[in-house]
Design brief:
8 helices; mainly alpha; single chain
Length: about 190
Protein backbone atom coordinates (compact mmCIF):
# COMPACT_ATOMS: atom_id res chain seq x y z
CA UNK A 1 0.00 0.00 0.00
CA UNK A 2 2.83 2.41 0.85
CA UNK A 3 4.52 1.60 -2.47
CA UNK A 4 1.32 2.36 -4.38
CA UNK A 5 0.81 5.59 -2.44
CA UNK A 6 4.39 6.65 -3.22
CA UNK A 7 3.91 5.85 -6.92
CA UNK A 8 0.65 7.75 -7.12
CA UNK A 9 2.21 10.74 -5.36
CA UNK A 10 5.10 10.73 -7.83
CA UNK A 11 2.73 10.56 -10.77
CA UNK A 12 0.56 13.32 -9.35
CA UNK A 13 3.63 15.55 -8.88
CA UNK A 14 4.64 15.09 -12.51
CA UNK A 15 1.16 15.70 -13.85
CA UNK A 16 0.73 18.80 -11.67
CA UNK A 17 4.07 20.11 -12.93
CA UNK A 18 3.11 19.47 -16.53
CA UNK A 19 -0.26 21.15 -16.27
CA UNK A 20 0.85 24.19 -14.29
CA UNK A 21 2.96 25.88 -16.97
CA UNK A 22 1.12 26.91 -20.12
CA UNK A 23 3.69 28.98 -22.06
CA UNK A 24 7.21 29.11 -23.42
CA UNK A 25 9.87 30.33 -21.02
CA UNK A 26 11.67 32.37 -23.62
CA UNK A 27 11.29 35.90 -22.47
CA UNK A 28 14.04 38.11 -21.16
CA UNK A 29 15.17 37.25 -17.65
CA UNK A 30 14.95 40.69 -16.11
CA UNK A 31 16.56 41.40 -12.72
CA UNK A 32 18.15 37.97 -12.86
CA UNK A 33 19.38 36.39 -9.63
CA UNK A 34 19.39 32.94 -8.04
CA UNK A 35 15.60 32.89 -7.48
CA UNK A 36 14.76 33.97 -11.04
CA UNK A 37 17.24 31.33 -12.21
CA UNK A 38 15.47 28.64 -10.18
CA UNK A 39 12.08 29.73 -11.51
CA UNK A 40 13.13 30.14 -15.13
CA UNK A 41 12.97 26.45 -16.19
CA UNK A 42 9.59 26.20 -14.45
CA UNK A 43 8.14 29.12 -16.39
CA UNK A 44 7.83 27.37 -19.74
CA UNK A 45 6.41 23.98 -20.58
CA UNK A 46 9.13 23.29 -23.16
CA UNK A 47 11.97 23.49 -20.62
CA UNK A 48 9.96 21.82 -17.88
CA UNK A 49 8.97 18.83 -20.00
CA UNK A 50 12.43 18.34 -21.46
CA UNK A 51 14.13 18.38 -18.07
CA UNK A 52 11.68 15.98 -16.45
CA UNK A 53 11.81 13.74 -19.55
CA UNK A 54 15.62 13.52 -19.39
CA UNK A 55 15.37 12.14 -15.86
CA UNK A 56 12.55 9.76 -16.79
CA UNK A 57 14.36 8.50 -19.88
CA UNK A 58 17.62 8.10 -17.94
CA UNK A 59 15.82 5.79 -15.50
CA UNK A 60 15.01 3.46 -18.41
CA UNK A 61 18.68 3.11 -19.38
CA UNK A 62 21.13 0.46 -18.30
CA UNK A 63 24.39 0.99 -16.45
CA UNK A 64 26.00 4.36 -15.99
CA UNK A 65 23.91 6.01 -18.70
CA UNK A 66 21.22 6.39 -16.03
CA UNK A 67 23.41 8.96 -14.28
CA UNK A 68 25.54 10.13 -17.20
CA UNK A 69 22.58 11.38 -19.24
CA UNK A 70 21.45 13.98 -16.67
CA UNK A 71 25.10 14.92 -16.01
CA UNK A 72 25.65 15.42 -19.74
CA UNK A 73 22.51 17.54 -19.93
CA UNK A 74 23.66 19.75 -17.05
CA UNK A 75 27.17 20.21 -18.47
CA UNK A 76 25.95 21.14 -21.95
CA UNK A 77 23.18 23.33 -20.50
CA UNK A 78 25.86 25.38 -18.75
CA UNK A 79 28.05 25.56 -21.87
CA UNK A 80 25.02 26.65 -23.90
CA UNK A 81 24.23 29.33 -21.32
CA UNK A 82 27.77 30.74 -21.61
CA UNK A 83 27.45 30.76 -25.40
CA UNK A 84 24.04 32.46 -25.24
CA UNK A 85 25.22 35.14 -22.81
CA UNK A 86 28.03 35.90 -25.26
CA UNK A 87 25.57 36.12 -28.20
CA UNK A 88 26.85 32.90 -29.77
CA UNK A 89 23.88 30.96 -31.02
CA UNK A 90 22.70 28.12 -33.22
CA UNK A 91 20.11 28.38 -35.97
CA UNK A 92 16.49 27.57 -35.19
CA UNK A 93 16.79 27.66 -31.38
CA UNK A 94 13.04 27.41 -30.74
CA UNK A 95 12.71 24.61 -33.30
CA UNK A 96 15.59 22.73 -31.68
CA UNK A 97 13.99 23.06 -28.24
CA UNK A 98 10.58 21.91 -29.51
CA UNK A 99 12.26 19.01 -31.33
CA UNK A 100 14.03 18.02 -28.11
CA UNK A 101 10.67 17.82 -26.32
CA UNK A 102 9.17 15.75 -29.15
CA UNK A 103 12.12 13.33 -29.36
CA UNK A 104 12.42 12.89 -25.60
CA UNK A 105 8.71 12.10 -25.44
CA UNK A 106 9.08 9.52 -28.20
CA UNK A 107 12.16 8.02 -26.53
CA UNK A 108 10.12 7.58 -23.35
CA UNK A 109 7.04 6.23 -25.08
CA UNK A 110 8.97 3.71 -27.17
CA UNK A 111 11.48 2.87 -24.40
CA UNK A 112 14.35 3.60 -26.77
CA UNK A 113 17.78 2.53 -25.57
CA UNK A 114 20.71 3.99 -27.44
CA UNK A 115 24.43 3.21 -27.32
CA UNK A 116 25.94 5.24 -24.47
CA UNK A 117 27.95 7.68 -26.61
CA UNK A 118 25.04 8.36 -28.95
CA UNK A 119 22.67 8.84 -26.00
CA UNK A 120 25.01 11.33 -24.32
CA UNK A 121 25.60 13.23 -27.57
CA UNK A 122 21.86 13.47 -28.24
CA UNK A 123 21.00 14.55 -24.69
CA UNK A 124 23.90 17.02 -24.76
CA UNK A 125 22.72 18.55 -28.02
CA UNK A 126 19.23 19.02 -26.56
CA UNK A 127 20.76 20.75 -23.54
CA UNK A 128 22.90 23.02 -25.71
CA UNK A 129 19.79 24.46 -27.34
CA UNK A 130 18.08 24.96 -23.97
CA UNK A 131 21.23 26.55 -22.51
CA UNK A 132 21.66 28.97 -25.39
CA UNK A 133 18.04 30.06 -24.96
CA UNK A 134 18.64 30.66 -21.23
CA UNK A 135 21.79 32.65 -21.98
CA UNK A 136 20.27 34.73 -24.76
CA UNK A 137 17.42 35.74 -22.43
CA UNK A 138 19.70 36.76 -19.58
CA UNK A 139 19.72 40.41 -18.57
CA UNK A 140 21.20 41.38 -15.25
CA UNK A 141 24.33 41.76 -13.22
CA UNK A 142 24.81 38.24 -11.92
CA UNK A 143 24.99 35.61 -14.63
CA UNK A 144 26.62 33.26 -12.11
CA UNK A 145 23.70 33.41 -9.65
CA UNK A 146 21.15 33.07 -12.43
CA UNK A 147 23.04 30.07 -13.90
CA UNK A 148 23.40 28.44 -10.49
CA UNK A 149 19.65 28.87 -9.98
CA UNK A 150 18.55 27.29 -13.23
CA UNK A 151 21.16 24.52 -12.92
CA UNK A 152 19.81 23.73 -9.45
CA UNK A 153 16.22 23.73 -10.71
CA UNK A 154 17.20 21.52 -13.66
CA UNK A 155 18.88 19.03 -11.35
CA UNK A 156 15.75 18.84 -9.19
CA UNK A 157 13.59 18.26 -12.29
CA UNK A 158 15.96 15.50 -13.47
CA UNK A 159 15.80 13.84 -10.05
CA UNK A 160 12.00 14.13 -9.99
CA UNK A 161 11.80 12.49 -13.42
CA UNK A 162 14.33 9.79 -12.51
CA UNK A 163 12.70 8.91 -9.19
CA UNK A 164 9.17 8.95 -10.59
CA UNK A 165 10.13 6.81 -13.57
CA UNK A 166 11.82 4.24 -11.34
CA UNK A 167 8.70 4.03 -9.18
CA UNK A 168 6.36 3.84 -12.15
CA UNK A 169 8.42 1.15 -13.92
CA UNK A 170 7.79 -1.29 -11.11
CA UNK A 171 4.13 -0.47 -10.48
CA UNK A 172 2.46 1.29 -13.42
CA UNK A 173 4.73 1.21 -16.51
CA UNK A 174 1.86 2.32 -18.74
CA UNK A 175 2.03 5.73 -17.02
CA UNK A 176 5.55 6.25 -18.39
CA UNK A 177 4.28 5.63 -21.91
CA UNK A 178 1.29 7.89 -21.27
CA UNK A 179 3.47 10.72 -19.97
CA UNK A 180 5.92 10.14 -22.84
CA UNK A 181 3.05 10.43 -25.33
CA UNK A 182 1.88 13.65 -23.67
CA UNK A 183 5.43 15.07 -23.87
CA UNK A 184 5.80 14.02 -27.54
CA UNK A 185 2.42 15.54 -28.49
CA UNK A 186 3.35 18.76 -26.69
CA UNK A 187 6.68 18.83 -28.56
CA UNK A 188 4.90 18.32 -31.89
CA UNK A 189 2.47 21.11 -31.01
CA UNK A 190 5.36 23.43 -30.16
CA UNK A 191 7.01 22.57 -33.49
CA UNK A 192 4.02 23.65 -35.53
CA UNK A 193 3.07 26.70 -33.47
Amino acid sequence: MTHLRSTLLSTLMIVASLLSVPAFAHTEATSANFITGVLHPLSGIDHLLAMIAVGMWAAQQKGKTCFNAPASFLAMLFIGFILGVNAITLPFIETGIALSVLLLGLMLTLTIRLPKQLALALIGSFALYHGIAHGAEFIGASAALFAFGFMFSTLILHILGLYSSQKLQSTMPIMIKTLGSFIAITGATLLVS
